Structures are given as C-alpha cells and as structure tokens.
Amino acid sequence: MQQRILLSAVMLLLFLALPAVRVSSRQVLSGLGSRSLIAADPVEGLHAKHHKPKFRPGPWKNAHATYYGGPDASGTNGGTCGYEDLSKHGYGVLTAALSPSLFNDGLGCGSCYEINCINDPKWCKPGQPSLFVTGTNLCPSSNDGPSADHFDLSQPAFLQIADQIAGIIPIQYRRVPCKREGGIRFTISGNPYYNKVLVWNVGGAGDVKMVKVKGSKKLGWTTMKRDWGQNWITDAMLVGESLTFRVIAGDGRSSTAWHVAPTNWQFGQTFEGKNFK
C-alpha cells in the first residue's frame, strides 16, 4: 500500500513539472537557433514583421495666414530649408514659410498642409477648393505670437483662398501626405573633407528626421548631421565609393536608395532614389 502511495506521489510531481520541462526545452532550442520553432509561436509570430502604415492626414487645427513675395512668388526662393530654386526642386509657387512651432528647427521642411480660409466672409473666397502647400522656409514671428502656428504663404498661394487686401486671414489647416513626382533626390556638394547632401522631393510625410550614408568599400553606415534645413553633412570620406542613402521621415518610415551614387560620382551631381508611397 505504501509503495502505491509513493508511486502515485511521484507521478503527480512529474505531471506538475511537465510545463516547466516544456519551457526549458523551448529555451534550449531557442538558444541553439531553432528559428522554425520560435516562428511557430502564435504570439511571437505577431511581432515577426512590423510595417509602419502610410502617412495619413492629421487633425484640423486653427491658425492664421499672411503672405510674402510677389505675384510670381518672387522673393520666396532660397530660405531656411535650403531648397534654393523652388521651381527647379519641384515645389513650385504653392509654398509657405512656417512659424517656429511648425518649422521645428528644420524638421518641418518639406511637410505638406491642406489649408482653408474660414470665418471671414469679407475676404475669404467662397467655394474655393482647399489649398495645398509645402513648408519651405521659416517665418520668424507672427501676429499670433512666436509659438503659435502660422503660415506666411507665397502670394500666389494666398490669392487662391483670399483677397490680397485682407493681409491676414483665419485659417483651418492639417498635415497631409506629400505627393511627389519621381524619387527622393540627393544633391551632393562640398569637398572630400566636408560632404553636404541636400535631400529634397520627399513624398509621404515629406519631412526628414534622419539621414544615413553607407559606402561600398570602407564606409559603414554613418549618421549624417543636420546642418540647416534639409542640408545634411558628414566629414566621413565618401569619395571613391558608391553611396547608399537611408532617409528616415518624421513618421518613422524609412526609404533606402541602394548604391544610388556610382563610384565615380562628382560634387554638384544629383541622384534619385526610392520615394515614399
């Protein structure tokens, strides 16, 4: 009788220990690199791949808008984003200088906005479709205060939604995805010891949070430093290597232009890589 009781107790202990044995076995197999067993786990399988969604329009907010430049958008070229000739770089005349809160030390460069003139029946043009503009410059101050959201539009953009005589108008705006023709452009300037890359024509979120560069020979992935606007710099030796650029947008999505610049690239040249959809 005692032997039967002892045997039953041993069997009970073994049964209780089985979950721990299974866990230990799985940990051992994981340590041995059993990828198939781990991938079969339904919980871990949910996190096996992570794809960030496409950039979506943001919430509507209230602000004010003014205008600068001439009727042909003269006076809006150059600016603190570094795009220089806005027509040449694909931004046209529908642009805006952003207040510091939107410019965000250059992170706002290239971001796109949908704007409507509201609550001013005297100056708002009724029945006008929304205005879509790209942030290409810094508006250092506004009537709303330096921390308030404000758009200093190019004159052609302003005239699409309001009469010129208004001067300043109340608006409603929201961030929207940027639609660009072709790929992201990389214009390389500087010298072998000071490399500057202007990143432009960025789709999706439009803004750029980080840029990395990699060579085909000695240069591993190197994070570039924002010089100003969308000009990114590094003192790493890039000459003589084909270059790959990785652009990380403000929404966290990344696009890699593999070997976009050939080994014999020259300063002053522009190269085109994959864009955000």
Task: Give an overview of the whole structure.
With about 280 residues, the protein is an alpha+beta fold. The protein has two domains: about 60-175, RlpA-like domain (Barwin-like endoglucanases, Beta Barrel); about 185-275, Immunoglobulin-like (Sandwich), CATH 2.60.40. Helices cover about 20% and strands about 35% of the residues. The protein has five helices and 15 strands. It has helices at about 1-30, 35-40, 40-45, 100-105, 155-160; strands spanning about 60-70, 95-100, 110-115, 130-140, 150-155, 170-175, 185-190, 195-200, 210-215, 220-225, 225-230, 230-235, 245-250, 255-260, 270-275. The protein has a six-stranded mixed β-barrel. β11 (about 225-230) and β12 form a beta hairpin. It starts with a helix and ends with a strand. The model is unreliable at about 1-5 and about 10-50 (pLDDT under 50).
**Shape category:** elongated
- The percent range for helix content is 10-25%
What is the averaged pLDDT score? 84
Distance between the termini: 76 Å
Q: Which residue ranges are poorly predicted, with pLDDT under 50 across at least 5 consecutive positions?
A: 1-7, 12-50
CATH superfamily of the largest domain, by name, is RlpA-like domain
Rg from C-alpha positions? 28 Å
Q: Mind telling me the CATH class of the largest domain? A: Mainly Beta
Strand content: 25-35%
What is the number of beta strands? Answer: 15
How many distinct folded domains? 2
What is the fold named in CATH at topology level of the largest domain?
Answer: Barwin-like endoglucanases
CATH architecture name of the largest domain: Beta Barrel
Strand order of the largest sheet: 1-5-2-4-3-6
Subcellular location: Secreted, Cell wall; Membrane
Protein name: Expansin
InterPro entries: Expan_Lol_pI (IPR007118), Expansin (IPR002963), Expansin/allergen_DPBB_dom (IPR007112), Expansin_CBD (IPR007117), Expansin_CBD_sf (IPR036749), RlpA-like_DPBB (IPR009009), RlpA-like_sf (IPR036908)
Pfam family, one: Expansin_C
